[in-house]
C-alpha cells in the first residue's frame, strides 16, 4: 500500500494567504472599471474620483509598516479577520454612497486601510514565519496573487457593469470577500508553533521574524524606520519602489482601461487586456521568486525596471497605430513584469536588515511604492483633464523606470546593516 505524503501546513497557510490577497486585490484594483460608471451616475468629474482612489492607494501603502507592527502585537489571524471585515464594510457602504466626500471616506480611508495588510506586508510575513526553504518562491506566489486574481476578474466585473449596473459588480465583490472572511476564521493559524510544527524546510523550530508581545505598534513601526533611514540602500530601494508603484497600480491599474476607452476600445475588451496581464503576472512573478533564490537580485531588478520602461513607451505607439498585435505584445510583456520586482526587493531587504526587522522595514519601502502609486493615480487624472490624453503620463512613467534600474544596480551586493554593525 502506497503511503501518501502529508502536505506541510505551511502550504495550506500559503493557499489561504494567496486567496485572501486576491480578494483584497479585487476590491482595491476594481477602481479602474468603476470610474466611468461613477461619472455617469453621480456626475462627479474624473479628478474627484481619481482623488478618492489616490487617497486609498497612498493610505494602504503608508499603513504597511504599522500593519506589520500590529501583527506583532495582535497576531496574524486577528489582523487578517479585522482587515477583511473592514473591506466587506467598505464595499457594502459603496452601495449607499451619494456624495463625493462619501466616496473619499469609503474608497480612500476604509478600503485603503482594509486592503493594506493583504497588499503590503502579508507576503513577506508569511514567508518569513512559515518557510525557511523556498522563501523567495513563497513571496513570488503570494505577490503574484496581488495582481493576478484582481486582473482576471476585471472582465467579469466589466460584463456585469455593462449588462446590469456597477452595483451588480460590487455585490459580487462583497460575496467573494465574505467567503474569504469565513475561510480565514475557520482555517487560518497564527504560527507553526500553534500546531507544534516547524516552518517548512526547518527542523529547528519556529523562527521569530520580529519583536513580539504587547508593545506599542507605532513605536515598533518607527523604530524600524529609524534603523532603515541610516542605510543608503533603504533610500535606493524606496526610490525604486516609488517608481514601481507609479508605473503599475497607480498608472496601469487606475488608468489603463480609461486610456484604451479614449481610443475607442470597448470596456470589456480593455478590461480583458488588463485581465490577460494577470495571467502572465502569475507566471512572471512566481518565476521571479524562483529566480530570486538563485541569482543576484540587483541584476534581476535592473532588467525588470529597464524592460518595463521600454514597454510603457511602446503602449502609446500601439494605441495610436491601432495595432492589436502590438497591444497584445505589450499586454503579455507587461504582465510578466507587473509585480516581478517584489521578490528581489523583499530578499534584498532581508539581506540588509535581517529576518527579524525586514517585515516592518519592507512595510516602509512599500509605503514609498504606494506614494508613487498615489502620484500616478491622481496625476494621471490631472494630465488627462489638461491634455485630454494619457500619453504624456505613460511616456513619463517609462522614463522613470529607466531611472529606477540605475537605483538598484548601485546597491552593494554584500550590503548588510547587521554585518556592518558587527564589524564596526
Description:
This protein has one domain (about 10-190, about 215-420): MFS general substrate transporter like domains (Growth Hormone, Chain: A, Up-down Bundle). The protein is about 80% helix and about 0% strand. The longest helix has about 35 residues, at about 355-385. Helix 1 packs parallel to helix 8. The chain is built from 20 helices and no strands. It has helices at about 10-30, 30-40, 45-60, 65-75, 75-95, 100-120, 120-130, 135-165, 165-185, 190-195, 215-230, 230-250, 250-260, 265-290, 295-320, 325-335, 340-355, 355-385, 390-410, 415-424. The chain is mainly alpha-helical and about 425 residues long.
Number of domains: 1
Question: What is the CATH architecture term?
Answer: Up-down Bundle
Q: Mean pLDDT, as a whole number?
A: 83
Could you give the count of β-strands? 0
Q: Level of helix content?
A: over 70%
Can you tell me the overall shape? globular
Series of H and E elements:
HHHHHHHHHHHHHHHHHHHH
Q: Class by helix and strand content?
A: mainly alpha
- Please give the count of helices: 20
Biggest sheet, in brief? none
Amino acid at each position: 500500500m502506497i503511503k501518501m505524503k502529508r502536505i506541510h501546513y505551511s502550504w495550506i497557510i500559503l493557499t489561504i494567504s494567496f486567496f485572501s490577497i486576491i480578494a483584497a486585490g479585487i476590491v482595491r484594483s476594481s477602481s479602474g472599471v468603476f470610474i466611468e460608471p461613477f461619472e455617469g451616475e453621480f456626475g462627479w468629474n474624473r479628478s474627484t474620483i481619481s482623488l478618492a482612489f489616490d487617497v486609498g492607494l497612498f493610505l494602504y501603502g503608508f499603513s504597511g509598516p504599522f500593519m506589520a507592527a500590529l501583527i506583532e502585537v495582535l497576531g496574524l489571524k486577528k489582523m487578517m479577520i479585522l482587515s477583511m471585515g473592514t473591506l466587506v464594510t467598505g464595499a457594502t457602504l459603496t452601495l449607499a454612497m451619494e456624495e463625493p466626500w462619501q466616496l473619499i471616506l469609503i474608497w480612500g480611508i476604509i478600503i485603503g486601510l482594509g486592503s493594506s495588510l493583504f497588499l503590503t506586508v502579508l507576503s513577506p510575513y508569511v514567508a518569513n514565519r512559515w518557510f525557511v526553504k523556498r522563501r523567495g518562491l513563497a513571496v513570488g506566489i503570494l505577490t503574484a496573487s496581488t495582481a493576478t486574481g484582481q486582473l482576471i476578474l476585471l472582465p467579469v466585473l466589466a460584463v456585469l457593469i455593462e449588462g446590469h449596473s456597477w452595483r451588480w459588480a460590487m455585490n459580487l465583490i462583497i460575496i467573494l470577500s465574505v467567503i474569504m472572511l469565513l475561510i480565514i476564521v475557520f482555517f487560518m493559524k497564527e504560527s507553526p508553533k500553534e500546531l507544534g510544527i516547524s516552518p517548512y524546510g526547518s527542523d529547528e523550530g519556529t523562527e521569530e521574524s520580529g519583536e513580539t508581545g504587547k508593545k506599542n505598534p507605532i513605536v515598533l513601526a518607527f523604530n524600524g524606520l529609524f534603523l532603515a533611514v541610516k542605510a543608503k540602500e533603504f533610500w535606493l530601494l524606496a526610490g525604486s519602489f516609488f517608481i514601481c508603484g507609479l508605473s503599475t497600480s497607480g498608472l496601469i491599474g487606475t488608468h489603463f482601461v480609461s486610456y484604451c476607452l479614449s481610443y475607442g476600445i470597448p470596456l470589456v475588451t480593455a478590461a480583458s487586456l488588463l485581465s490577460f496581464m494577470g495571467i502572465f503576472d502569475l507566471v512572471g512573478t512566481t518565476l521571479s521568486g524562483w529566480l530570486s533564490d538563485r541569482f543576484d537580485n540587483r541584476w534581476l531588478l535592473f532588467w525588470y525596471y529597464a524592460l518595463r520602461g521600454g514597454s510603457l513607451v511602446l503602449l502609446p505607439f500601439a494605441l495610436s497605430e491601432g495595432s492589436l498585435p502590438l497591444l497584445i505584445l505589450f499586454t503579455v510583456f507587461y504582465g510578466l513584469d507587473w509585480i516581478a520586482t517584489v521578490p528581489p526587493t523583499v530578499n534584498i531587504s532581508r539581506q540588509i536588515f535581517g529576518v527579524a526587522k525586514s517585515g516592518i522595514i519592507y512595510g516602509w519601502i512599500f509605503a514609498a511604492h504606494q506614494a508613487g502609486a498615489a502620484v500616478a493615480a491622481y496625476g494621471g487624472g490631472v494630465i488627462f483633464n489638461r491634455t485630454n490624453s494619457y500619453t504624456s503620463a505613460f511616456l513619463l512613467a517609462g522614463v522613470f523606470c529607466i531611472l529606477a534600474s540605475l537605483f538598484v544596480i548601485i546597491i552593494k551586493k554584500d550590503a548588510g546593516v547587521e554585518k556592518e554593525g558587527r564589524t564596526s
